[in-house]
Amino acid sequence: MLSFYAVPTILALAATGAVGGIIEPFASLAGRTDAEIEHFIRSNNIVGGRPAPGPIADTSAKLVNDEHHPWLSLLPFQIRGPCVCPGLNTLASHGWLPRSGVASPGQIVTAVQEGLNMGWDIAVLITYAAMLVDGNPLTDLLSIGSKTFLTGPAPPKPAIVGGLNTHAVFEGDASMTRGDAFFGDNHSFNETLFNQLVQASNAFGGGKYNISAAAEVRFNRIQQSIATNPEFFFSIPRYATAFAEAVFPIAFFVDGRNTGAAAFELDLTVARGFFQDSRMPRDFHRRDGAFGLDATGEGLSFLINAHFVPPGFNKGIGNYVVDEETLDIFENGFQICALYDFFVNKTVELYPVPKAKGVLRQALAQNLANFFLAVKTASSTCPEQFPYGKVHN
Ligand code: HEM
């Protein structure tokens, strides 16, 4: 879905012949607007997969809402609509990511580290998982919101390059501040849901969103989806991401100058800024030290154990069926290999091996290799898979 802002953009681009690759690859760009040139570059530059960037060297707390990264509302030529992820939305609104909301996975890995001090391992894990199922491997671009022409020419079907808002590949049900896709809008900030987060924080977090409040919010949202969404799905991969995302605000939205318990207590006005307006508070400093897979795993386990709900799915409203296969995996501890297998299999489903040729095949192999870099930091026992062959970096 294109946002309100997309309409004038498309009309303007159509008037100048810039839509759909009408500017020939060899044509002069003289006299074209920034938006047209950006569009031209994005629709013609087929770069394929690239190695993932490494970890950043300095992970100290530092000012990130600085003069180079001011919050700006969307301009008429920017098509970024509401996005499922308040973290990436905020990074785009502050220019740590391209303000268009379309970025390469490399840009995302660097931006989440630089802007919020997300640990390199989890940044690579989430970003390349999302890139594999929601991004364009030909142009090496991913929309953090909806499908957009800015990601360039798409690979052949059944591939979907719909961006992070695409339901049921990465995006899933029972989000804290976004509704379930079944009800028609899985990406806009939802005031009613945010108020539930506020209430839980007041009741269980002493007026702050902390890990105790997170446990209640997470549990309540699961119960709500079980009770209302006949198509509620809460197994792999959503089971893992839903719990991790409830930890993220505590890890990444709290000012890095806070110490002790206050370093893990999120003020509710600050929370609203991130969740609703994609905006850091004035003078915001990113957290002190990277927060990676291990720390996320600890938070995630706390939330799972606080109110255990087995992985499963609804067969009609209120009829939650346990996914026995996935339950086995989780009873043996959180298994990153299962997540890895899910995304490898999903990629192969979207890009059947015989059809993936040339630069597309190379890009998929590269992105899978990038994804595996993070998997192997978490577990040495998952065998690497090479459906598209090996890459040599
Ligand atoms: C590293 C790349 C990232 C990717 C690809 C990504 C992707 C996503 C996606 C697809 C969702 C939607 C899941 C759903 O609710 O259905 C989501 C939600 C979320 N993301 Fe991100 N994310 C990333 C980084 C971050 C960062 C750095 C933060 C910082 C706090 C963050 C915070 C959140 C939160 C809090 C939610 C849950 C929103 C809610 O439940 O209302 N994410 N993210």
From TrEMBL:
PROSITE patterns: HEME_HALOPEROXIDASE (PS51405). Its cofactor is heme b. Pfam families: Peroxidase_2. Transmembrane segments: none annotated. One of its GO terms (molecular function) is peroxidase activity. Belongs to the chloroperoxidase family. This is Heme-thiolate peroxidase. The gene is HTP5.
